[in-house]
Design the sequence.
C-alpha cells in the first residue's frame, strides 16, 4: 500500500506540474526557489555557487581524472569518453554554465509548448531574458496545436542573455505515465545531441532530465543518460552534466559514470 501511495502521489505531482506549465501559472513569485521547494519538496538552485576555478581530486576509479573548470559549478569530475572527448559531471546552476560562448549550449528540460514553466525550465527562461526567449520559442513551428516539441524531441534557439551561446530544448517523459519511459528519455538525450552536432555545438550541458517533478528514478535515469551519451563519444568535445540539489543526483551520476565508462 505504501508503494501505491507514493506512486500515485508522484503521478499527481507530475500531472500538476505539466498543467501548471501548459497554462503558465508559475508567476515570478512562484518561481522563487523557496516557493518551488514548497511545491515540489526540493530546490533546483544551490544555496551558494562558487564562480572561481575549482580543482577537485576524487578517489575513484581510474576512469575519473582531476578536472579544473571555471563554469559556474562545484565538485567537478571528468571522465574520458574517448582519447580526445570527455564527460564532465558537476554540481551547479546550469544557467551560469558556459565554455566559450560560441560553440556551447545548455539543455532546457522544457514542456511541449516551449513557453516556460517551473524548475530549471523557468530558471533558464528568466536568465535568458523571458521576453527574448519566449519570442524565439513562439517562432518554433507547432507540429500540432499547442505542441512545438513533443516528448523525446529537441529544438534549438539562441541563448540570448545566457553565457552559453545556445539553448537546446527537449521534453522528457513523465515516468509513471509514459508507456516506455526509457525509450523516451533516451530519445530526449539522443535528439539533443543530434541537434547539437547539426549546429556545430562542441560543448553541451545537460540537467538530469525528468528527475524532478516527472518522477524518473535517479539510478535508471543516469543509466539511460550516460549510455546514450556514449553513442556520441566522438562527436562533441565535452558533454557536461550540471546538477542541482539534492546531492544524491550528483552522487548517482558519478557512480553510474564510473560503472558505464570502464570499457
Sequence:
Amino acid at each position: 500500500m505504501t508503494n501505491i501511495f507514493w506512486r500515485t502521489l508522484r503521478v499527481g505531482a507530475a500531472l500538476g506540474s505539466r498543467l501548471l506549465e501548459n497554462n503558465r501559472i508559475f508567476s515570478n513569485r512562484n518561481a522563487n526557489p523557496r516557493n518551488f521547494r514548497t511545491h515540489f519538496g526540493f530546490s533546483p538552485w544551490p544555496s551558494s555557487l562558487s564562480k572561481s576555478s575549482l580543482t577537485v581530486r576524487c578517489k575513484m576509479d581510474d576512469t575519473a581524472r582531476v578536472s579544473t573548470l571555471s563554469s559556474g559549478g562545484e565538485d567537478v569530475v571528468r571522465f574520458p569518453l574517448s582519447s580526445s572527448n570527455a564527460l564532465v559531471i558537476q554540481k551547479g546552476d546550469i544557467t551560469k554554465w558556459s565554455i566559450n560562448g560560441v560553440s556551447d549550449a545548455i539543455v532546457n528540460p522544457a514542456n511541449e509548448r516551449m513557453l516556460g514553466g517551473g524548475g530549471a525550465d523557468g530558471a533558464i527562461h528568466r536568465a535568458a531574458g523571458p521576453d527574448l526567449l519566449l519570442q524565439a520559442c513562439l517562432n518554433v513551428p507547432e507540429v500540432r496545436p499547442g505542441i512545438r516539441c513533443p516528448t523525446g524531441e529537441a529544438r534549438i534557439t539562441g541563448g540570448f542573455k545566457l553565457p552559453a551561446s545556445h539553448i537546446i530544448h527537449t521534453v522528457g517523459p513523465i515516468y509513471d505515465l509514459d508507456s516506455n519511459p526509457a525509450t523516451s528519455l533516451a530519445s530526449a538525450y539522443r535528439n539533443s545531441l543530434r541537434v547539437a552536432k547539426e549546429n556545430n555545438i562542441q560543448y553541451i550541458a545537460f540537467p538530469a532530465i525528468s528527475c524532478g517533478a516527472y518522477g524518473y528514478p535517479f539510478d535508471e535515469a543516469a543509466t539511460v543518460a550516460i549510455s546514450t551519451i556514449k553513442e556520441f563519444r566522438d562527436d562533441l568535445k565535452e558533454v557536461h552534466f550540471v546538477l542541482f540539489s539534492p546531492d544524491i543526483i550528483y552522487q548517482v551520476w558519478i557512480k553510474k559514470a564510473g560503472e558505464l565508462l570502464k570499457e
User: Anything to note?
Assistant: Confidence is low (pLDDT under 50) at residues 19-72. Residues 2-22 form the longest helix (21 residues). The longest strand covers residues 73-80.
